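Slide 14.
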Amino acid sequence: MNTYISILRGINVSGHRVIKMDALKKLYADLNLKNIRTYIQSGNVVFEEKDSNPKLIAKLISQKIMKDFGFEVPVIVLDLPDLTTILENNPFVNERAEDVKFLHVTLLSDYPDPSDIDKIKAGPYGADEFIVSGRTLYLFCPAGYGNTKLSNTFFESKLKVSATTRNWKTMNELWRIAAGN
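Slide 15: predicted structure.
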């Protein structure tokens, strides 16, 4: 069995697209996913599955949410080695030692076109910064994520891929749960 982390975008925000965690766990169980654990109410799920195709698993979860709840939810699935790599390679931690309370990670559903990245690199973002690494965007938002232009919607419109963001603490907690620590 492989350990996976699924991150759902936009559920349980301001009373919209509500999925209770018990219902979400049942949905995953209905897909024959095993050892299902959730973290907070925003759609973070750690589970085990024998399949080794995260994109296929994400598609199955998204389709099941549509079938059971009637709305579309972008889902990104990482395996434990991918999450470990993301955490180990944050340049804002490794190279600059920024305060982790201002760090976020935006996960992309696919690799963005390099020309689209080039178009947004030098934008007017104030003190906010992002660094692209494959399908991961590392964010530093010293005034807080709620005040940044570097939102999921911004990246989705500019990079033409689905995006979902978690703070650094959540990403580390998901790793801890997935690694069994």
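Speaker note: The chain has two domains: 2-79, 83-179.
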